[in-house]
Design brief:
heterodimer, A: mainly alpha, B: 5-stranded mixed beta sheet, 5-stranded antiparallel beta sheet, 25 helices, 37% helix
Chain lengths: 373, 622
């Protein structure tokens, strides 16, 4: 019996291609390839012409990373969380000090000619951190001291990334925490209190936001006509592009808004806008359907996980991806504020694509141990 | 609890096994999460439904003709009026042609240039200058369209011809004709690329019209106002589908000059055809009543876009029409500075009021012959007649007694050697020499020969006409120097300077200046009936007599003529400095000053008509 062998020789004994989560991998691959096609369509004839090709390379490297991580026992990783966390903070600090400055933000570290966005990988470490911390709880539910400690642990990288400034990525650290809290549970009074504190913080942020940069984005979200030259311009153009897609879309490389370059940063944060124009509502539903499928599979893996840690990791990954999806796909049609975070697997951006594949690798590893508990 | 509890603490294992088999863990919560997912996807899908299916026609129309159009609503610059509120600079409404770069087809550009009589290269350069701005910001390609241009734009701006062009309402600046007050007013023009790179122009964008000289430049911030903007979504016919932002322009603030148009007109006329400058001040408060510099340029040429040929012609004109001689020319004032030397000598006590000197026409110092302009000499001469006859030998003696240190102290008090702080750009400092000045500039010590030259306003001493008027006005007012200024109600940079002077000494100097005009002095042409005009002529050499002879330039390089006068004798109300370059003798300049002073008192008389009693009785109705 495989199970028996597993029990006796340890959970890493049986490894086979059969044990991979093929449907999950296939779904991710289809989405990533759709992204490649869309990047090609949005950039052909521009100076970013080779972006789709780089995206393909990213996918290949990503899949390799996914396979590697699907074979690394997540318990081993959990055991290393304090070190991973320390390294993360160190690298974020290094990024702040010596990072490459692009468009006023220090988000990238240049390693061997490649720009790496450290915060994308920190995101994964923080998912692990949440799981690692929550399985150690001695209380039945999450009580205040632990809540504060855990939040504090997340707040340090959050503020470091916020300082870059990269509010978008910093915010993506929070869904994993929220998911973790949801899973272990918390007194409803605390939930109310935490919501209150968040509201107060938001209010304070609103009044003391020194750069006025985030406030501007939020106001733009409320009224895109407010500043058509700045962020509002992107949203307006993006919405026009999406609307222009109609039910069936304009066809690949035929989206007039996409092709006439009304959309700034089309291949990265606004990739879904060009996708919606060229593939229409039908294409959008198919894409959203694929994402839904992806998330459902991750959640299922969470349900069948051998232990709490596995569940928390899977749901953390799902929550993080769901947050990306909500904000990115929502901002394109002005249902969310313009926060510069990429669409998982579709947006052009090496670090982001790789980190998604690594997360999927973690999920696969959890799945591969589902029978050994 | 420690911050990082070790995951392998045994009590944890006993209490709750690590990696516990907890299949039922959080089942309900996972369901909740699943529902959250469903809600998020539903939320997103409905959003796309409403845009892509429900409202798709609306967006498709927007997309079809994308786009956002932003039209500037130009703000009118503030008007400039004279001290009595009469308009000097006004705005005229006109049309401008805009080019939308989003819709620009490159092949249309030559045709548009041709239709509007623009140089294609100029037009392309202009578009290039705007490359850093968002594409939907249109570029003004021609301002102040002629009726033919308006017709061209109107008939061709539809989608089938040139959808990229657009007509907007704008305002242009109208200046007085005949270069009237040109140097004071300055002119406006589009901010150049070089200017935009400078920090003081940081607030401006390419295409902004800004003041380039004179009052227009100095008071640009208050004159300029703020352009408005109308941002809307339009279709490809230019029809507005949705108004996004409408920002009304804020007009600039009007400016009231201290200049009196009547006086200015007289001053302009008297200088007609000459090279020089006139400045009239009210010494009581520093108001500039008139300021003329000739030759001048026509600022109207700049208010429409000036062609490069015109610009070149103005810049390369040997007569330098852009140069405001009233406050930029640094020239030796000649004898016109003698009142200051005299006052300084009296105040410092180096001469007594009865001091006299013997003038034989020659003054030998070491081995050099410093001549008097009267070659046969004035004989024994006192202060009053030395001023009246402008005896140089008297002032050589006074100058040597006074010395440069004391003179430069008084020169600085009178505002020489530094800017008066007038609210106009480009003012020159002039030079008030002193020992440190010469050491710094020439690395030489001060010589008695220098002092002899400076004591008659030659040598290193230079002033602008404005400085001279300011200096003489302060002496005439008994040692009160009010900084000159151009605009009513604006604070001056400099504070008024008051010197403690003996008013008897001032009266002695003024007496000499009175004699210049009224008692057979060097400027009897400036005499006016019923008005006590006082003044001092100056004739300044550009090159020494020896050099003139050596280079055979006698009669070609002519002396500059100066006159600085004021009226009335006590409590003066107006001080005028006049300069005629190459005017040969100071009395030529005195005529100009006289006319301006006469215009001032004539106007005053008109304002309060004095009707003799008998005449009044004769015309009174019975």
């Amino acid at each position: 019996m495989i199970i028996a062998v597993g029990r006796r020789t340890g959970i890493s004994a049986v490894r086979s291609l059969r044990d991979l989560d093929w449907p999950l991998m296939l779904t991710a691959l289809i989405i990533a390839l759709m992204g490649g096609l869309q990047i090609y369509s949005a950039t052909h004839g521009t100076k970013l012409e080779s972006a789709w090709w780089k995206h393909m390379v990213n996918i290949l490297v990503g899949i390799a990373l996914m396979l590697i991580f699907s074979r690394v026992n997540y318990h081993t990783l959990l055991g290393q969380v304090p070190y991973l966390y320390g390294i993360s903070l160190f690298l974020l600090a290094v990024t702040l000090l010596f990072g490459k400055k692009i468009l006023g933000a220090r988000r990238w570290l240049v390693v061997g000619g490649q720009s790496v966005q450290v915060s994308e990988f920190v995101k994964i470490v923080l998912i692990l951190l949440v799981a690692w911390y929550l399985v150690e709880l001695r209380t039945k539910r999450l009580e205040l001291p632990d809540l504060f400690k855990l939040t504090g642990l997340l707040l340090i990288p959050f503020l470091l990334v916020r300082k870059q400034p990269d509010m978008g990525t910093a915010l993506t650290f929070l869904p994993a925490l929220a998911a973790g809290i949801l899973l272990v549970g918390m007194r409803w009074q605390y939930v109310v209190a935490v919501c209150g504190v968040i509201l107060v913080l938001l209010g304070a942020f609103w009044f003391f936001d020194a750069e006025g940069y985030q406030k501007d984005r939020i106001l733009t979200f409320v009224d895109p006509g407010r500043d058509p030259q700045g962020k509002g311009y992107q949203v307006l153009q993006s919405r026009i592009a999406v609307g222009n897609g109609g039910l069936w879309g304009q066809g690949v490389t035929r989206g007039s808004q996409t092709q006439l370059r009304f959309l700034p940063i089309a291949p990265t944060d606004f990739i879904f806008s060009t996708f919606a124009e060229e593939h229409g509502f039908v294409g959008v539903i198919i894409a959203l359907g694929l994402y839904y499928l992806l998330l459902v599979q991750i959640v299922q893996n969470g349900q069948t996980a051998p232990d709490r840690a596995g569940t928390i990791i899977c749901i953390g990954v799902a929550a993080t991806l769901l947050f990306h999806l909500l904000v990115n796909v929502g901002m394109v049609i002005n249902r969310m504020p313009v926060v510069g975070i990429p669409l998982p697997l579709m947006s052009y951006g090496g670090t982001s694509t790789l980190s998604v594949f690594v997360m999927l690798g973690l999920v696969m590893n959890v799945r591969s141990q589902r029978l050994f508990s | 609890m420690t911050l990082f509890p070790s995951p392998r603490k045994p009590e944890h294992l006993t209490e709750r096994p690590l990696f516990a088999d907890d299949k039922k863990f959080a089942e309900a919560q996972i369901t909740v999460f699943h529902w959250i997912m469903v809600v998020v996807f539903f939320f997103l899908a409905t959003g796309y439904w409403s845009i892509q299916v429900a409202d798709s026609e609306y967006y498709q129309e927007l997309a079809h003709s994308n786009t956002v159009r932003s039209l500037p609503l130009p703000a009118a610059r503030g008007r400039i009026v004279d001290r009595e509120g009469r308009v000097i600079v006004d705005n005229l409404s006109s049309f401008s042609c805009l080019l939308s770069r989003e819709r620009l087809k490159d092949e249309n550009l030559p045709l548009i240039a041709q239709g509007l009589n623009l140089d294609l290269q100029d037009l392309q350069d202009r578009l290039h200058r705007f490359r850093k701005q968002a594409r939907y910001v249109p570029v003004i390609i021609k301002e102040h369209l002629t009726p033919a241009d308006v017709a061209f734009v109107e008939s061709n701006r539809h989608a089938d011809m040139f959808p990229e062009i657009e007509l907007i309402h704008s305002v242009r600046r109208v200046y007085p004709k005949e270069s009237f007050l040109a140097h004071v007013l300055g002119y406006v023009g589009e901010a150049s690329e070089a200017e935009l790179d400078r920090p003081e122009y940081a607030a401006f964008k390419p295409g902004d019209t800004i003041g380039k000289d004179g009052i227009e430049r100095y008071y640009n911030d208050s004159l300029m106002g703020k352009d408005g903007q109308r941002v809307s979504l339009v279709n490809n016919r230019g029809k507005e589908l949705q108004l996004l932002k409408n920002e009304e322009p804020t007009a600039g603030k009007p400016l009231k000059l201290t200049v009196d148009l009547d006086l200015q007109a007289v001053a302009e006329l008297t200088l007609q055809g000459k090279r020089g400058a006139v400045v009239a001040l009210d010494p009581r408060n520093g108001d500039v009543l008139a300021m003329v510099s000739r030759p001048a340029y026509d600022p109207n040429k700049f208010s429409t876009r000036i062609s490069s040929a015109d610009w070149k012609a103005i810049l390369e004109d040997p007569e330098t029409p852009m140069f405001n001689r009233a406050l930029q020319s640094r020239l030796s004032p000649g004898s016109a500075i003698k009142p200051l030397v005299a006052l300084a000598a009296l105040e410092e006590g180096v001469i007594s009021p009865d001091y006299s000197a013997q003038c034989s026409g020659h003054f030998f110092y070491v081995d050099h012959d410093f001549k008097c302009h009267a070659r046969s000499g004035h004989g024994r001469i006192g202060l009053r007649y030395a001023l009246a006859q402008s005896c140089d030998i008297f002032f050589y003696n006074v100058g040597l007694l006074l010395g440069i240190d004391k003179l430069s102290k008084w020169g600085e008090m009178a505002g020489l050697g530094r800017r008066t702080g007038i609210d106009l750009p480009g003012e020159s400092t002039g030079d008030m020499p002193s020992r440190p000045w010469k050491m710094q500039k020439l690395r030489q010590g001060w010589l008695h020969g220098d002092m002899i030259n400076v004591s008659i306003g030659q040598g290193y001493l230079t002033t602008t006409p404005l400085q001279l008027a300011h200096a003489i006005g302060g002496i005439a007012s008994g040692g009160v120097w009010n900084p000159p200024h151009m605009v009513v109600g604006e604070a001056t940079k400099e504070k008024p300077r008051v010197a403690k002077v003996n008013l008897d000494n001032v009266q002695r100097v003024i007496g000499g200046m009175y004699a210049v005009v009224n008692q057979g002095g060097t400027a009897t042409e400036a005499w006016l009936p019923g008005i006590e005009v006082c003044g001092k002529t100056g004739t300044s050499q550009l090159i020494s007599n020896e050099t003139l002879k050596r280079r055979n330039l006698t009669g070609i390089v002519k002396d500059n003529a100066w006159f600085a006068g004021f009226a009335p004798r006590s409590n003066p109300e107006i001080v005028v400095a006049a300069l005629i370059e190459g005017g040969e003798h100071g009395d030529r300049a005195s005529i100009i000053a006289r006319d301006v002073i006469k215009a001032y008192f004539d106007k005053k008389a008109r304002a309060k008509p004095v009707v003799p009693v008998s005449v009044a009785a004769a015309v009174a109705p019975k």
